[in-house]
Amino acid sequence: MSKYDYLVVGAGLFGSVFAHEAALKGKRVKVIEKRDHIAGNIYTKKIDGIQVHQYGAHIFHTSDKQIWDYVNQFAEFNRYTNSPVANYKGSMYNLPFNMNTFSELWGVRTPAEAQAKIQAQKDSVHLSGQPKNLEEQAISLIGTDIYEKLIKGYTEKQWGQKATDLPAFIIRRLPVRYTYDNNYFNDTYQGIPIGGYTQIVEKMLDHPEIDVQTGVDFFANKDEYLANYPRVIFTGMIDQYFNYQLGELEYRSLRFESEELDIDNYQGNAVINYTDAETPYTRIIEHKHFEFGKGDEGKTIITREYPADWKRGDEPYYPVNNSHNNSLYKKYAKLAKMEDNVMFGGRLGQYRYYDMHQVIHAALTLVQSEFASNVGKG
Ligand code: FAD
Ligand code: UDP
């Protein structure tokens, strides 16, 4: 048996919150991470004085004051409000779908005019009952025009599937409002940590009871780890843990292509979405705008995000939570329950389209149940 109470597999947000809280309770924790750095997909790195979001734009948002206070222990947040702009075949539209968008598209000026326009489009399609898929959900929320220009192309390239085959909940992530408000989120609290996200995880893991090893894959020595550690928190792919014995869950991957440019300002906004079907990437991020232009003079860094099919060995950025995958996941979750000393967490371990605040909430919930049910152990 090792000298540790816990093995945490994955130094992403879930694993790091758990490791931090366990260490505060006096537990000895070993964290292994297969990448060569900590922080998982929230990893940021300073290049040319700019905090570069290495795995895509990350904006923290929550309405839960406890979660907001929790994360603020580890960094000071700026007042960044996410307001992406859509580029559809060269025309620019504000996001999310709000009075600015409606006015740009149709020249309408009032909420009543916008509502009448959208209602007429909905009536022309004759939808009945609950929306059965993303296309029906989008049209029932926002009409055909916005669906065709700002949703269909983006969604189908992002997910590699027809919008009629995708679950409705994905499009309900985006607000629809009849006010001139370009805030992408409805949450009470929002911001970006000044100085990037990596520091948050660094501080979580900076504890004498925590040892971190990067560049180590759990599957290289799975049996040994399970034999030697009393309790394991696993934040990798749940189907991989069980050697895909019930079949593969589906994931969506991404390819990030970054460019350093010798100009101050490339696109005037942190995020521009390319919503047509033909442009092969979904969005371009210009990182310096997350910190209001902070960075070396005359330099900027942009990243194009290309959606990609997932196959074994690729990074599984998104679970594809359609009904087929969700029911397969449930079967894996049953197997997981039977693993006495292994707990599964995070976007991959719980196969959920979790945002950061939800990951923190899930990790703190596990901490609570673990230390309530496990009093005296370890
Ligand atoms: P991860 O960050 O994936 O961490 C899991 C870690 O485990 C990884 O580091 C992985 O390398 C490691 N690992 C896996 N298998 C093994 C193994 N076998 N051995 C050792 N280590 C292993 N959320 C927001 O709130 N706001 C946003 O704006 C936002 N934007 C996003 C944009 C993109 C493009 C993506 C992909 C996600 C975004 N998210 C956003 C979601 C956010 O990234 C996640 O909620 C969060 O990072 C998940 O944390 P996690 O610990 O569950 O997973
Ligand atoms: N979406 C869209 N057009 C956009 C932005 C988003 O159709 O310009 C849809 C798309 O299906 C996407 C979903 O809304 O997958 C959720 O968007 P979000 O920005 O939350 O995606 P994430 O940042 O998680 O990739």
Automatic annotation (TrEMBL):
Q: InterPro entries annotated for this entry?
A: UDP-GALP_mutase, UDP-GalPyranose_mutase_C
Annotated UDP-galactopyranose mutase C-terminal domain ranges read 149-353
Against Pfam families, the record matches this protein to: GLF, NAD_binding_8
Keyword check for Isomerase, yes or no. Answer: yes
- In the UniProt record, the signal sequence range is none
Q: Which GO terms describe its molecular function?
A: UDP-galactopyranose mutase activity
- Cofactor(s) needed: FAD
State if Flavoprotein is listed as a keyword.
Answer: yes
- According to its UniProt record, this protein's enzyme class is isomerase
Q: Which key words are in the record?
A: FAD, Flavoprotein, Isomerase
EC no. given is 5.4.99.9
According to its UniProt record, which protein family does this protein belong to? Belongs to the UDP-galactopyranose/dTDP-fucopyranose mutase family.
Name of the molecule in the record: UDP-galactopyranose mutase
Q: Which organism is it from?
A: Lactiplantibacillus daoliensis
Q: Which gene encodes it?
A: glf
